[in-house]
């Protein structure tokens, strides 16, 4: 499977992607911990089959100090003992939001669970994290951008 189109080589997509990266950088100032943002992005990327984003967010989570065991167990978070109740609530929200075709969106029970652990600003950031990574997954899957070559910190560098 080869890359269909390098979006950064097209003027309109490159301009859009730079703004997209800048939007994502706004999350750096949120109270939602970077390591949690990376783990949530990893989980959504796994669900969406985006190799590039799985590669990127695995490496970014490690760079943010996440231990290997937690990174490796994100795909099996329900069957793992290494995540807090707050992180589990965030993963549940991310999964339900990512799998909108399976029901009525995010359930009231899941929403209540995340409300127990996150304030409005953190919850707003979490919703934005899930939404932005989903859009990134779609772009990368459409053009068949593959994983394996991401270097930690490249996202921050691409927005400057």
TrEMBL record:
It holds the Pfam family CMD. InterPro entries: AhpD-like, AhpD_core, CMD-like. Residues 11-96 form the Carboxymuconolactone decarboxylase-like domain. Signal peptide: none annotated. SUPFAM superfamilies: AhpD-like (SSF69118). The keyword Oxidoreductase applies. Keywords: Oxidoreductase, Peroxidase. It comes from the Bacteria. Transmembrane segments: none annotated. One of its GO terms (molecular function) is peroxiredoxin activity. This is Alkylhydroperoxidase AhpD family core domain-containing protein. It comes from Jiangella alba.
